[in-house]
Amino acid sequence: MGELEQKLVWHGRTKRKAWMVWGGWFAITLLTIYCWMEMTEDTIWFFVLDAPVQAADLIDRMFPPEWSYIHLLYKALWDTLNIATLGTLLGVILAFPVAFLAARNTTPSVVFVRPIALLIIASSRSINSLIWALLLVTILGPGILAGVIAIGLRSIGFVAKLLYESIEEVNGTSVEAIESTGASRFQTINYAIIPQILPAFLGITIFRWDINIRESTILGLVGAGGIGLFLSSSLNVLAWPQVTLIILVILATVVVSEFLSAKVRELLI
Amino acid sequence: MRTWQRPHYLVPDKRWRIALWIVFALYLVIGISSVEVNWQRAYEGLERGMRFMEGFVNPNFSRRAADIYSGILESLTMTVTSTVVGILLSIPFGMGAARNISPKPIYLFCRSFIAVSRSMQEVIVAIFLVALFGFGAFAGFLTLTYATIGFLGKLLAEEIEEIDNKQLEAISSTGASWLQRVHIAIWPQVMPRMIGLSFYRFDINFRESAVIGIVGAGGIGATLNTSIDRYEYDSAGAILILIILIVLACEYFSGWIRKWVS
């Protein structure tokens, strides 16, 4: 009976692991405190403390929204939808070959071609469409075209990454079956791989379209067309009732596109 | 003689397929024709495009070294603080938005907060917060924190709703309090994925921190904006390369952590 009275309490972890976890938390805490101090060095606390007053004032100026402004927004909204849709198409067309070059089982060369494809994916994914738009506006001039290309460039990485992952997961048996008939590399891809990834591909495309609608609403801030253009000009003249209306329109668009994309993806699966 | 044809899985009816293609083609015609292109301007821009390519291949880190350094540092500090604070705040919101462990009024409140936070673009939030809190990193920090709460809160709530109920029942049957149930039965089940998602959000926050600088919320975006506006494509290329490298490093690191955790 003596053994049972040992004062052993249940522990979740071994001692060494517990120390490591503590060390990790300690390091994260220190890092956060350091970053906080570094970040707030230039903060003017008067403005921060003043913010509630400012917020009340801003809300007071923002309402009611200027409903009569809406007739100017229809065309801008149509432009925004076009930027998102055409940009998604462009991105998808460019992403399709990149995905096949990046997938281990379809790439022509794991050593030479795959790293290049992965680099394209990484660069496109790391840079936000607003930054692409900023660049393209200085190159192509302001307008919808810069927006379409910006959205397209940003979509390549996203679509190609998800697509190449699903290519790598295809069922090898059907690939082997097609290969054993003496099919060429291209025919194998066409008959064994594409039918397997098609639903995933359409799902990814619609998902990206939904994200692109969101992103294209703000591209106008840097001059790349769409409803953001109106947002930026209303902000510049501090026409807050117009800003409220534009934001409501943007929110409604985002909600509707999210609903549509969810419904279509449900149908696909 | 009939030859084999590939079956159509998605839209089996031929008439529907043709109709869909016609709608698609019509949209393409209308959509593309609404894009007004100033070809003269685009042609002139080609030379600038070439210079940007050159700048990307041949980046200049030294001309704006001081600005780039302070911008990147500001972006990174903003990212760290906003991710940490965002995670801490997303835990109560996420638990509140999980159907199985919270009462209805709290559930509705947390769900609607998360929905609002998710449907607002970071850049738009940043515009307002800059107007309220003044230019600088603090507005950026608040923007990213707000976005993090929506993102992680939603995922955490879904994660909690999908837990294995047996463990929760087992712990409840010992007479554990609500806090003990959360700590012993729920937390271990959602922890590994939460850590992975937190690192993913860190990554997103860094990328976003490069963007919200354009509207004045601190970080590398302001430096990038200036260098693009002055057509200094070699400095812009340097900044973009740094952003890509940092994002890649984050991704690699988070993959390593995830492997270690699970």
In short:
Chain A has 269 residues and is an all-alpha fold.
Structure description:
The complex is a heterodimer of chains A (269) and B (262). Chain A has 269 residues and is an all-alpha fold. Chain A has a single domain (67-268), classed as MetI-like fold (Orthogonal Bundle). Chain A has 10 helices and no strands. Chain B has a single domain (62-261), classed as Orthogonal Bundle (MetI-like fold). At the A-B interface, α1, α2, α3, α4 and α5 of A face α1, α2, α3, α5 and α6 of B.
Give me the secondary-structure topology:
The complex is a heterodimer of chains A (269) and B (262).
Chain A: H1 15-39, H2 45-62, H3 73-102, H4 113-126, H5 129-140, H6 144-168, H7 172-179, H8 185-216, H9 227-236, H10 240-268
Helix pairs in contact in A: 3-4, 3-6, 3-8, 3-9, 4-6, 5-6, 6-8, 7-8, 8-10, 9-10
Chain B: H1 14-33, H2 39-57, H3 65-96, H4 104-119, H5 122-133, H6 137-161, H7 165-173, H8 178-212, H9 220-229, H10 233-261
Helix pairs in contact in B: 2-10, 3-6, 3-8, 3-9, 4-6, 5-6, 6-8, 7-8, 8-9, 8-10, 9-10
